[in-house]
Amino acid sequence: MRFDDNTPSKCPGRTRPPYMRRLKLLTHRRRLVASNRALGLLLAFNAGAVNAGGFLVLHMYTSHMTGFTSQLADGLVLGNATLWLNALGAILAFVLGAAVCAMLVNWGKQHRLHSVYALPLMLEAALMFPFGLMGAITLTWPTPFAVPITVLLLAFIMGLQNAVASKTSGGSIRTTHMTGNITDLGIELGKMLYWNRLEAQAQGHVRHNPARLRQAGGLVGMFVLGGVAGALGFKHVGFVCVVPLAALLLALSLPPLLKDAPQLLALARSGST
């Protein structure tokens, strides 16, 4: 097993099979490269489902900050306040989500919690449960940004999730937007298909990175699969289809949180920050 540069070389667990240890460690503070990838795949599925479902309901993709940034510029040039306010609200919500994730992770690290990365995922699950049960109501709640609060909530959730994947993997895995992953996929395919001539041996052969190719392809594939599941879910059962996704995040978060329960209770009683 390979660990990333920020973690100890030992993995907790005694006689469990490797796949069971990896499942338990998906949100643990000790990071395995394989665990980072597995968590990234699950989060990519979640992001694809939320994005696709959000588009069916809101007619916009709530994790695509590149599009919102362009929309902000267009709105300012056209003098269309609704356009740039929409974009500004989504961008601020996404940034706030990422900032909250960073604060939770750093707080967990300072207190040496096992649930460093489980805390933001637990928050994401806590936000998705009421959204799934009462999402239709939020469509009527206005905001200063000329969009219903649903847009800001989903953008916040996506910012929170993307920051989790980035923090666990050292920035190598992004789950809420696929531009970088599709770029990596194209680069590695180009290397794989490159014809290495015999006379080029002195300069070194071009070789692709199979692990990077699998990672990029897997993330894109899971995002698409999640998008299909989310679109079908929102189309046929509505907002409640988000509840199983929230339950998945809750299940991922619980093992390290339960281990930290006594320490968290002690911190709560002492009012520690």
Task: Characterise the protein shown here.
The protein has 273 residues and is mainly alpha-helical. It has one domain (32-258). It is built from nine helices and no strands. The chain has helices at 18-24, 33-58, 65-78, 81-110, 118-138, 149-169, 179-193, 210-236, 242-270. It is globular. It starts with 17 loop residues before the first helix and ends with a helix. Residues 1-14 have low confidence and may be disordered.
- Global mean pLDDT: 82
Count the beta strands: 0
Largest sheet data: none
State the helix count: 9
Query: For the CA atoms, what is the radius of gyration?
Result: 21 Å
User: In percent terms, what proportion of residues is strand?
Assistant: under 5%
Unreliable stretches covering 5 or more consecutive residues: 1-14
Structural class, by secondary structure, is: mainly alpha
Cα-to-Cα separation, first versus last residue: 35 Å
* Percent in helix: 55-70%
Shape: globular
H/E order of the elements? HHHHHHHHH
Number of discrete domains: 1
